[in-house]
Amino acid sequence: MTKRLRCNIRGIVQGVGFRPFIHRLARRFKLSGWVRNDSGGVILEVQGEDGALHLFITAIRGEAPPLAVITGLTHEEIPPCNGDEFRILTSKGGGGAPEISPDWDVCPDCLRELFDPADRRYRYPFITCTNCGPRYSIITGTPYDRHLTTMAPYIMCPTCQGEYDDPANRRFHAQPNGCTLCGPTLTLTDASGEQVAGDPLAQAIRLLAAGKILAVKGTGGYHLAVDAANDDAVRELRKRKRRDEKPFALMAPELTEIRKFALPDIMEERLISSPERPIVLVRRRNDHNLSPAVAPANGYFGVMLPGTPLQHLLLRGNFPALVMTSGNLSDEPIAFRDEEARQVLSATADFFLAHDRSIQTRLDDSVIRVFQGNPLFLRRARGYAPRALPLPAGVRSVLAVGGELKGSICLTRGNQAFLSQHIGDLKNPETLASLEQTTEQLKRILEIEPELVAHDLHPDYLPTRWARESTGLPTVGVQHHHAHLASCMAENGLEGEVMGIIFDGTGFGPDGTIWGGEFLVGGYERFRRAGHIRQVPLPGGDAAVREPYRMALSWLRATFGPAAFHLPLPFIEALSPEEKKLFDRMICRGINSPLTSSCGRLFDGVAALLGVRTAVSYEGQAAIELEGIAEGGNKRPPLSFQIARDANDTLVLDFTPAFRELTEAFLAGDTPADLARAFHDTVAHGAAELCGAIRQDTGLRRVILSGGVFQNKLLAEGVHDLLSAQDFNVFTHRLVPPNDGGLALGQALIAGRSNICA
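Now predict its structure.
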């Protein structure tokens, strides 16, 4: 019996070879009809025998292209039509809103052709097909067709056009399709813009081998590249980029090379090899032969495999690894436009390896580490953005603009949230402009017009001011740590009330103090502060973030009183008598020393106390290095702490007893590694014990862990294991970062559930 079905398919189904896939399925099952993109996904009509139609629908889900993500598939029977062909029709607008595929690595078929001397695309740096290559970075609008990408200027040669038109070909309707005759081309210039004679790729390899610094255009922006085994070149890059100690990312040609300088486990290798091509933090080998300047004072390398054909060509057979760090100036977003890159990077790079395919959307590399055998995002960007995140329930359309650090935005539509790529630390006009560009691009390609704008409560954050002054929409201020709570709840599909441990560096508290060591109870609609780490002064405000010894002084003053300034600790002895008096007055009188409960600053203070780091050159450096030495420390009993209730019946976790014991043990000669390990265990035990007290008050058993401090694997695993052993249900982040990169998701949920009228 002949039937005809109309099917609507939603999800990531544009730009992933979905229409050619449907065409091939229809031919296999001898069905007629048509398929096309619309602005909401893919729509098709298909006609044939009942049994064949059933097999066709089953195969759509079971055999979908590797880059596709089907979130909805509905079909209805309609009257049959005449015709025995199955056609791909021109895309049509209307019918909802689309999802956009992220950018992906080179697929195995294209990679094989890339290195096959007999293939017509042999060593072609822009080889692609429907199963791989650029998507989000080149899209200018929807539906996803070539004229709405940055490939629009390139007219396909007859051979490429033939592939594009052939339903049996892997490049059938592959929008970035091209070859050496008709596609993008490479260029190599010096820093002044002068063309370098010879083959650009061969010359670039030669220059890298000679120790030169190259700016290399990637999928979403420029990288700065040097030979990772050339110590002079790596140190020169540090000098020119003014990046004294923050680790550089490494790109290796294949896993076998990574294993020569790092020790990836099975999950880390799976992530490194995935088509998203993130940077993965992997423990480094002690016997590696790379420059020690790649990641000084750090036990991990950030490693990745090539994510573009050009990167494969640069590395294979030429280098065990290249440093591939973001092409930007400090605190500015990655450079992605050619003219901008030359202006920004000409003082850093000796040469520019570029091409003439424009980048529409700026994208930095994603960064992941493994926690409890699962991926934990530190930065969510290329390969993952703007993939939709499912929400536990539908909300209004909201634009959330995040916080100041690790900026990202979030747009919601029904029961989906679209978290943007990492934008950067929003402290200057350049990064704010990038936020504005990202917002407009996502609104356009996702066809979302928000009703509300959510922002952080801090009045001086640039995104907050922009939300209030420039969007023209009603705004909702969301407390920083409440947003962290909601973010973790949302990605775990939680409703109702939970308990949340929110540990981070800084968040504006409703009481006017700086929060950061919080134990919250609540949900999307409301929250209360059930407990917190003891508040101590933050001497000098932001200066204490850059100079952790200030936090050590604050905690030691709270522990020992005035005698703290006479302790025989090196960083105290380095202070003049006048400086000691000044700090004592600042701390005791609160002069430019706001109170803080920050867990991040607590870790900074211990790092300074133990001589690990008294000043930092990048965010989180002291805590990262403290964790690094703690991992090599011997297990010992936790230090002492106290839990008490203040006048508001709020639980306070006090670590001054731990500071006394740390100081005495350190002065007695105990190793910093053992003491750092004991401190991590102490914080974990204190957090678990305080959660037990909250459970007695509330009966809550679900606990979420969020905030940037939970990037600390040793602490996160300690808290997780202790709570699990006490029969708590513990929820952590997997889809979005625990740091402020996930803040916008929580803001969007809270604002979307609010009673604010549009």
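The CA atoms of residues 492 and 731 lie 7 Å apart.
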